[in-house]
Amino acid sequence: MTRPIRMRVRLDGDLAEIRALIDHPMETGLRKDSKTGELVPLHFIQNLTVSLNGKPVLETQWGQAIARNPYIQLRVRGARVDDEVSIEWLDNQGERGRASAKVPPPG
Amino acid sequence: MNPQGASRPRALRAAIGALLCVCALVSPAAQDGPEADRERMVNFFNERFPGVPLQDYIYGAMIVSADARAQYEQIMEFPPFLGDLDAGRRIWEKPFRNGRTFASCFPDNGRNVVGNYPHYDAALDKIVTFEMALNRCLEDNGEPPMRYGEREPLGVLSAYARTLSDGMPMNVKIQSEKALVKYEAGKDIYFRRMGQLNAACAGCHMHLAGRTMRMEVISPTIGHATHWPIFRAGEELMTFQGRFNRCMEQMRAAPFGYNSEAWNNLEYFLSYLSNGLPLKASVFRK
């Protein structure tokens, strides 16, 4: 099952504003399925990396306290038009997600 | 008291009586009917919120809070419910077993149609909402209908399909006596006191609009019908009729329920009052 990442990049001077919305259930492991009464297994993004031209600019370690469909926003200095921004994540069940986008011209 | 003073109230009474007669003589058509109701409502809110352009009423309670409006604009730049709209688009575009799609049931493939709903259907003698039209499309093509009030599929489908009419002005028409009966039934619900709190819709959304109740600003009646469904906190999909249900629960009354005739009539009434305002589907609300 693929989980899309919606990403938008905007260039302002040499600052690239990166915004991303990641589709992920982010289960805490404490919630019960309303039909079966069974606990829904823990399922959350553990590592998330944002890179500019393949070089990591943000490396994070997340836990199950982060809400469903997480949203991140960051600004990176030194970005130029046509640089490649990519976001990668790995969750506790071994699933991975990746998306990339080019830095568009300002305006 | 001098005799002159005693005669003055009598003169005043006569003057008032004459005035009342003049009022009664003015043609009743100018004072009754949906268009007069709408104008009265617009005038009411123009007095309550001077300087707020009519077009801004689609922002509901945010017309009194620039801060809330700024937050809204920021969230709507990249709304958290894009995934739900995508899910709705997939349902909208997925062909039925006979190969046709939802777009085939509407003029111009479903673009700029929602402003015409709800409308009165003479054959059924009922109000037809956009959600009912979606279900009728399924039935016409031999597919099982969707259940009202469920997030999927009808909720997300409606959330997407309504975005195709963004910017279209609300254009609800009342063209027959029987349609007027439905409008009046909706109006009756809006002004009727109900439930343990003995509250009416109009009590809060007209007379207390813009004031605060339990930390929330109450939205005005005008513009209520233009922006459904909403995603509360970006998560909870709520349709117009879902909002009616929630309001009734908060009034401690038993809700009429999704797609009940009462709600469809109320939706007809409220949509008429929002005539001329631009539609904006699937928005963020608190």
Question: How are the SSEs placed, and which strands pair?
Answer:
The complex is a heterodimer of chains A (107) and B (286).
Chain A: E1 5-12, E2 15-22, E3 45-52, E4 55-61, E5 71-77, E6 84-91, E7 96-102
Antiparallel strand pairs in A: 1-2, 2-5, 3-4, 3-6, 6-7
Chain B: H1 3-25, H2 34-48, H3 66-77, H4 82-93, E1 119-121, E2 126-128, H5 130-140, H6 151-163, H7 177-191, H8 201-205, E3 212-213, E4 216-217, E5 230-232, E6 236-238, H9 240-250, H10 261-273, E7 283-285
Parallel strand pairs in B: 5-7
Antiparallel strand pairs in B: 1-2, 3-4, 5-6
Helix pairs in contact in B: 4-6, 7-10
Structure keywords:
heterodimer; A: 107 residues; mainly beta; Immunoglobulin-like; 4-stranded antiparallel sheet; 3-stranded antiparallel sheet; elongated; B: 286 residues; mainly alpha; Cytochrome Bc1 Complex, Chain D, domain 2; 3-stranded mixed sheet; two-stranded antiparallel ribbon; 10 helices; 7 strands; 45% helix; 7% strand
Descriptive notes:
- The complex is a heterodimer of chains A (about 110) and B (about 290).
- Chain A is an all-beta fold and about 110 residues long.
- Chain A has a single domain, classed as Immunoglobulins (Immunoglobulin-like), CATH 2.60.40.10.
- Helices cover about 0% and strands about 50% of the residues of chain A.
- Chain A has no helices and 7 strands.
- Chain A has a 4-stranded antiparallel β-sheet, with no helix packed on it. In chain A, strands 1-2-5 form a 3-stranded antiparallel β-sheet, with no helix packed on it.
- In chain A, strand 3 and strand 4 form a beta hairpin.
- The N and C termini of chain A lie far apart (about 35 Å).
- The mean pLDDT of chain A is about 95.
- The radius of gyration of chain B is 22 Å and the shape is globular.
- The N terminus of chain B is likely disordered.
- With about 290 residues, chain B is mostly helical.
- Chain B has a 3-stranded mixed β-sheet. A two-stranded antiparallel ribbon of chain B has the order 1-2.
- The termini of chain B are far apart.
- Chain B has 3 domains: about 30 residues, no CATH class; about 160 residues, Cytochrome Bc1 Complex, Chain D, domain 2 (Orthogonal Bundle), CATH 1.10.760; about 80 residues, Cytochrome c-like domain (Cytochrome Bc1 Complex, Chain D, domain 2, Orthogonal Bundle), CATH 1.10.760.
- In chain B, helix 4 crosses helix 6 and helix 7 crosses helix 10.
